[in-house]
């Protein structure tokens, strides 16, 4: 049984670097925290390299039967690796793993254009999973999928459906060739989403919190829709808008 | 022109107390921050007592024509009052103002049962405003409406529609007497929301992030509905669920 007590330990120093985007990209690994997320990673065969368990907590027996290394850590080490105020003391170090998806098998997909808030991106991934979407495509300018806040907001859904970094222009072109209807979201030159006829296979393109979807992308969609604002609010939160459209167009 | 440079000034000390729930409740006032929120408060005639403006920023001319006191503050004071990382240096001190609403005029209303996350509560208020709902009722156990995070998440919608603290059992009883259909949200004994027949006047009852709506309340609704989960996610974020139902049942 391996055990690390000191935050000066070289492995801990290396894992702490995974709390920054640069550190994650150099190592091609990320860190997840909390019983629920670690359980989801194990259940869904995520490429876990190490499991770190604080000496004081009880874990399910299934946690220690994987092919990854299990290390027990002190409370002090647990605090050093945590991004939350009260840590549960369970962590996993996971390898980057951008899944692939065969476009021919896609029925419903979400395309994200410059979604910057990690909470929004994570919530959209969670909703896409819940609504039965086949994949989420992250275009350029999107926040880091492996940011702790993004991961926590997915509530584990990043282990359930493929999340792919890609060029949205290419994706839209390819989806259209595949006869998958691409809905853009826009305020101008668009119609209320409830007036769109429903189709079996479709994609929803959502844009930046402040500026919406890039115009060059809106120009190549099949149809652009909006969610009517009845009251005095200027807009909807993009995570909420995503949910309304995913369920509303299904 | 009044001007305060020191964080030791008694007014500043008193206003800093508004950053805590206890301080707000003692003073029956709250503080808002940022150009957009202050502008919304002014436009919607919120009961503003003081406007605080950092010397270095430009403000719209309309900001200084109200009946409230305007005080210029130093950068140091601005930082001391701010809850955000990069403050815009504009604040307003506003009196508590739980609006009233005539139940006879209500067409659509949201009831919140123990929603604890300020971001969720604020987002639901913003969506209720956008979707044309007439009011949001906060039952016991809900987070503080005047928490900075709740206010920021409303994006100003707390100045657009009445937000009322109330007893949900009483509200449900009264809404039903008024022939307003009350939809509860539950996983058991409920049907998919798309199978519900649409009605002109209705209420949606949403519950706690972890435990859902209290059973005693679900027992007295007209009908309970759920949003189908197709994928592997365990649930939807309650702010997203609220949006799906507000637009889906309308």
Automatic annotation (TrEMBL), chains A, B:
| This protein's name | RNA methyltransferase
Q: Superkingdom, according to UniProt?
A: Bacteria
GO molecular function term, any single one: RNA binding
**Matching CDD domains, A to Z?**
SpoU-like_rRNA-MTase (cd18095)
Q: Which UniProt keywords apply?
A: Methyltransferase, Transferase
Query: Organism, per UniProt?
Result: Gottfriedia endophytica
Q: Please name the GO terms of the biological process aspect recorded for this protein, alphabetically.
A: methylation; RNA processing
Pfam families per record:
MRM3-like_sub_bind (PF22435), SpoU_methylase (PF00588)
**What is the phylogenetic placement of the source species in the record?**
Bacteria, Bacillati, Bacillota, Bacilli, Bacillales
């Amino acid at each position: 049984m391996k055990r690390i007590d000191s935050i000066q330990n070289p492995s801990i120093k290396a894992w702490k670097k995974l709390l920054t985007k640069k550190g994650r990209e150099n190592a091609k690994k990320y860190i997840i925290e909390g019983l629920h997320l670690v359980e989801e990673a194990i259940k869904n065969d995520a490429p876990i390299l190490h499991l770190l368990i604080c000496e004081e907590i009880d874990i399910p027996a299934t946690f220690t039967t994987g092919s990854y290394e299990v290390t027990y850590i002190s409370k002090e080490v647990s605090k050093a690796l945590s991004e939350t105020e009260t840590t549960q003391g369970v962590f996993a170090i996971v390898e980057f793993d951008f899944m692939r998806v065969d476009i021919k098998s896609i029925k419903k997909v979400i395309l994200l254009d410059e979604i910057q808030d990690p909470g929004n991106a994570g919530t959209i991934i969670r909703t896409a999973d819940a609504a039965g979407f086949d994949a989420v495509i992250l275009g350029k300018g999107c926040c880091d999928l492996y940011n702790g806040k993004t991961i926590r907001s997915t509530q584990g859904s990043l282990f359930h459906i493929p999340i792919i970094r890609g060029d949205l222009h290419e994706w839209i072109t390819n989806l259209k060739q595949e006869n998958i209807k691409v809905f853009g979201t826009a305020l101008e030159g668009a119609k209320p989403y409830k007036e769109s006829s429903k189709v079996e296979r479709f994609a929803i393109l959502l844009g930046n919190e402040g500026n919406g979807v890039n115009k060059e992308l809106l120009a190549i969609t099949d149809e652009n829709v909006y969610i009517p604002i009845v009251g005095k609010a200027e807009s909807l939160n993009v995570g909420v808008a995503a949910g309304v459209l995913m369920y509303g167009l299904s």
